[in-house]
Amino acid sequence: MTRQPVRSPGRPTLDAVAARAGVGRGTASRVLNGSSQVSPQAKAAVEAAIQELGYVPNRAARSLVTQRTDSVALVVSESQERVFGEPFFAGVLRGINAALLETPLQLWLAMAASPEQRERVEHHLTGQHVDGVLLLSLHDDDPLPAVLRERGMPFVFGGRSARAAESDFLVDVDNAAGARKAVEYLLGNGARRVATVAGPQDMEVGRARLAGYRAAVTGPELVEYGDFSEAGGARAMRALLEREPDLDAVFAASDLMASGALRALRDKGLRVPQDVAVIGFEDAPVARQCEPPLTTIHQPVEEMGRRMAELLVCRIRREPVENSHVLLDTHLVRRASA
């Protein structure tokens, strides 16, 4: 028989929730605070009592007791055009949100592409506003990690960073190995002059993918640099064709740059993959929409976001973790462009 919600007169209290669930007040409090030190049966009973009584926690009172805000920040060191225009960021955000749905934590998003934006974000990242921070798409000159360490604020890197210390927590994709797979695949299919459209070299992800290319390429290194955008990929591809008109394959360090490279190759009257084979990196939706569909390296961006959030929750709760540096695998997705 289904128990119907029972509304008590006035605002339900935590004591009423505990009594309804048949547990102690401390157990009910631990469930509300997302503690793992609660049995599944007690957790289910408290959650059912909360729903039946219509209990709404007094967040201000909880903050005074727990010294927590139940809020975390995702800080992305990019412009809003990139954050809302590139599928990588949406994928990571979906993974973060999925993990936080299992906790009381609320997420807020901040973009810190300019010194003025960084200053505003730094001012807000205090213990009075958030319990922890997720950092994504950091550039080498970003001072935020040092600021957070000085304040004792729990944080997790999304991707390796020149500012990361051995004791920091981070989640990354094996970018170098993925790039190496791409170039080895091109060489294995007969390519002899393999170029790359590399990412920004003030970011570890750009350096790692270039290192993977260099570890695998057997002919001359043919390198042009882009900014992970479609326009940047087209510019770099045009520059490569001007310098090396007989290249026969290209590894682009992102799918958006690869889509720009495809456009530049079409403009030159070159066929893909008959004249030039192309491989990207990410396996974003744009890879399937390209003409021809893009062979690419799949990176698990949603898993990256989920693991970042899980590590941050452990840091906030001071729970032990098996591995503070998580490295996720990649794999090749074969389509028609190579």
Automatic annotation (TrEMBL):
<keyword id="KW-0805">Transcription regulation</keyword>
<dbReference type="InterPro" id="IPR000843">
    <property type="entry name" value="HTH_LacI"/>
</dbReference>
<keyword id="KW-0238">DNA-binding</keyword>
<dbReference type="InterPro" id="IPR010982">
    <property type="entry name" value="Lambda_DNA-bd_dom_sf"/>
</dbReference>
<dbReference type="Pfam" id="PF13377">
    <property type="entry name" value="Peripla_BP_3"/>
</dbReference>
<dbReference type="GO" id="GO:0000976">
    <property type="term" value="F:transcription cis-regulatory region binding"/>
</dbReference>
<dbReference type="InterPro" id="IPR046335">
    <property type="entry name" value="LacI/GalR-like_sensor"/>
</dbReference>
<dbReference type="GO" id="GO:0003700">
    <property type="term" value="F:DNA-binding transcription factor activity"/>
</dbReference>
<dbReference type="Pfam" id="PF00356">
    <property type="entry name" value="LacI"/>
</dbReference>
<protein>
    <submittedName>
        <fullName>LacI family transcriptional regulator</fullName>
    </submittedName>
</protein>
<dbReference type="InterPro" id="IPR028082">
    <property type="entry name" value="Peripla_BP_I"/>
</dbReference>
<feature type="domain" description="HTH lacI-type">
    <location>
        <begin position="12"/>
        <end position="66"/>
    </location>
</feature>
<keyword id="KW-0804">Transcription</keyword>
